[in-house]
Amino acid sequence: MTRRLSVDVAIIGGGLVGSSAALAMRKAGLSVALIDKGYCGAQASGVNYGGVRRQGRPPEQLPLSQRAHRIWSQLGAMIGMEAEYVRSGHLKLARTEKDFAKLEAYAETVRNYGLGLELVAGSALSKRFPWLSAQAVGASLCPEDGHANPRLVAPAFARTAERAGATVLELTPVRAVAATGSGFAILAGDDIEIRCRQLVNSAGAWSDHFAAQFGEPAPLTRIYPSMVVTEPLPLRLPMSMGEQGGSFYGRQVARGNYVMGGGRGLPLADPDFSRPSVKAASSVMQRAIALFPHLADAQVIRFWSGTEAEMPDGNPVIGPSETTSGLFHAFGFCGAGFQTAPAVGEVLAELVTLGRTTTPIQAFSIGRFRKVAVETAASL
Amino acid sequence: MSEPLSPVVVGAGPAGIRAAERLVRAGLRPIVLDEGQRAGGQIYRRPLVEDGRSYRGRYGSEAGKAQRLHQAFEALLPQIDYRPETLVWNISHSERGNQLDILSAGVHRQVDFSHLILCTGATDRVLPFPGWTVPGAYTLGASQTALKAQGCTVGDRVVFMGSGPLLYLVAWQYMRAGARVQAVLDTAPLASKRHLLALAVHAPRIVALGVFYGLQLQLAGVKIRYGVRPEAVLGTSQVEGLRYRRRTPAGEVVESIACDALAYGFALRAETQLADLAGCRFHFDERDRVWLPERDVLGRTSRPDVYIAGDGSGIAGADAAEISGELAAMALLEDAGRASADVARLVAARNRILRQRDILEQAFPFPADWFETVPAETTLCRCEEITVAEVRRTIASGSITEINRLKALSRVGMGRCQGRMCSAGAAELLSGACGVTADKVGRLRAQAPVKPIPLNFGGGKPEAWS
Amino acid sequence: MSMNPLLRRRYRLDETPVPFVLNGVAETGRRGDTVLTAILSVSGSLRQSEFTGEKRAGFCLIGACQDCYVMMADGRRVRACSTALLPGMAFITDVGAMAEIGHE
User: Fold this and answer.
1) CATH says A87-146+222-310 is which class?
2) Chains meeting A at 3+ CB pairs closer than 8 A?
3) Out of A182, A194, B134, C76, which residue is the most buried by the measure of CB atoms under 10 Å away?
4) What is the per-residue pLDDT across B10-43, written as a single tens digit (0 to 9) for each?
5) Has the ipTM of the complex gone over 0.90?
6) Which three-class secondary structure string do you get for chain B?
7) What are the structural domains, with CATH classification, of chain C?
8) pLDDT digits over A106-137, tens only?
9) Mutation for testing the C interface, residue in A257, A289, A295, A297 having most C CBs under 10 Å
């Protein structure tokens, strides 16, 4: 029997963007259906590194990132769990003078955004971070950046939205979606018809498929993180670590496991699924020992990978559709959407209720790819 | 002439040895990778040094089979590339071909293969109850391994508990070795043993042996109880006893028994992680309540280059493992255009054993009601130390209906053992909470490395196989 | 607290002794022992669990449960059930016991 739903907003994709948007929209009094082909937060939102990091983002992302920073500080009150979120600090190491100069230049560029970066160089490094055994020229610390458990955050947002009255439809793939003139009609799952006035496309690595149905090119490519987890070890690494000019990143969780990543995994025959690559994992493991010699005797107990979406210019797509009134996009976070996503949810709620947002998002317009497409066509 | 073959056999138990033997007979030189120090697998496991026991003394009624298998392997040695103490921890298929990632003496290497025969065996199927992590509580298989391979018993005053023919055998072996067997606690009701009458028609030897062990135990004054459910291990830093309930005609009674070790288990659980990483399709096996790689009668999986044999393809015991190892190799040879052989006799022999296993399963049923009475504070996941209560809470608050989702949100199965010890329990608990059958909650996906590997595993580039 | 040895030797009683060190104390195993057999023939546990501090002494003995990791004095850890005992190996199964020796 057909199940029929009529809501103000339907959200395709229950990642952290979609889940937090659902909650923000419920708070604004809208009726919401959150639809996911699998489980909420099981794709990029659940399989990323878990860095809640502002440092290193391009300036155009920082207003959004700062807005998210304020939301993260209220996470427990908002979703009923801390999800292992800690403001541990994020320390980015420079191996060479040239790399340190880049860290200095970045700090200068983002000076007015309030990240509170601290540059530490030379002998001050071991005084300031006595636990750090790595050979480094210098480092940049963002003291209020941190990390959280990615597996827990998005599902908790989805469950909170559900308790607040959102209809959460998991294991419900969207089979067809179309504009009706006054809104949208969606066919999903076995036999569910959803009508909505406005529609959010936050389907992550599957978003290009939905954007295309509304005539909007989205040059999205899939990327696969390659993560390595050690057995639980005595607590020693107090900060989330990154490297300028390197691809290694790592943190130690409260239970003692080191969670480390770098390089890319590989898709399986079904590109919805992926595996870490042994090559990438090996280089992460080598780099981990170089940075943390005390890990030489540690055991790796798990690899993981997942599916994330990347845009060619490194920025996500956030904002209204340029072809279809009432449609909003939010996807393509390039493996770095975990920190900003809760703010994206609020921005989407503002867009659907007010038609505008207080956070600058021009740089994330989907139209930037149409222009590129047109220019490319013209030059041929 | 067809292309050169580079088959790899994983596991040197009954299935792996017979598979390698069949390949050698066809003129091939397979690589045989095995985690053990010496070939034989778990059932015909050999000690690190001889300890004065004869084959009869170590393997009992199965001595002849053990000796024949070991001799067959010794004869094969010059004709195979045998690598003991070698863990296969990952399998990948890429444009460059098929590769195994292996670890030997702490060093990572990659091995190419044209065909793979997985003979990965099984481990004990266990269920959690209060105190199952206390020193002195071991799996039934562990208690047998200690005796067979190390000449030790776990404890001196030992209680055996569970369901399966191994229960009576190991208790008898312990008694013979000088341990004081305190009790054999069968979780199946006495009534289930009537199925052994049906089995006696097909497999009189199996039933006769079982009756023999049971009678000898009883003659020695060992307490045998049926319909048992454990309540708790007594003792916190070491096993001091066991409290259990059992059904009697007069109703349920609670009893305690003193012991310094407990050995328990509920038959076996196939080791299927490598088949999963190889990309094999799985199906749910109703009898064993577990997901197994799909296989045809010869051991072909859904992947054209991967074959599977022995208990790792479904629990059928050592005799069936020897047959299925040979069959898998014959299938490989046929598929590679090397030979076609008459498999009918072997298939029929294996089918006979499978029918016997079906009856055995009725005589030694899995305790499906286990979680109805397991207290909330019981540890479910030994590695991550997650309790039944935490798992129930996570299931309820996350509306969880699928086992990988349960793992992601609760950490059950995420630790060092990757769910080997808790996945049977987690699946039963989840399906019970959801009010569905165990097949509906899905299958815990395997992840590389299938067992822990050292972070410092020998250089950025894997050493070439030489 | 002293604990009883968990394993009882039934065979190889006269096998060549293999010296090893357990929590700073000299002990003797036998040729052919695994690390697990050697330690549990003279003591009652192998390690403490990471999260609750419970004592653990292995479980499956065939390299599947990963419950029998033992810390060596040099910081390495070995899976006790599948590692052969070698003369001179030194293990720490009880950090508290080591601390007491250190104070003496």
Assistant:
1) alpha beta
2) B, C
3) A194
4) 999 999 999 999 999 999 999 999 999 999 999 9
5) yes
6) CCCCCCEEEECCCHHHHHHHHHHHHCCCCCEEECCCCCCCCCCCCCCCCCCCCCHHHHHHHHHHHHHHHHHHHHHHHHHCEEECCEEEEEEEEECCEEEEEEEECCEEEEEEECEEEECCCEEECCCCCCCCCCCCEEEHHHHHHHHHHHCEEECCEEEEEEECHHHHHHHHHHHHHCCEEEEEEECCCHHHHHHHHHHHHHCHHHHHHHHHHHHHHHHCCCEEECCEEEEEEECCCCCCEEEEEEEECCEEEEEEEECCEEEEEECEEECCHHHHHCCCCEEEECCCCEEEECCCCCCECCCCCEEECHHHHCCCCHHHHHHHHHHHHHHHHHHCCCCCCCCHHHHHHHHHHHHHHHHHHHHCCCCCCHHHCCCCCCEEECCCCEEHHHHHHHHHHCCCCCHHHHHHHHCCCCCCCCCCCCHHHHHHHHHHHHCCCHHHHCCCCCCCCCCCEECCCCCCCCECCC
7) 26-103 (3.10.20)
8) 999 999 999 999 999 999 999 999 998 878 99
9) A297
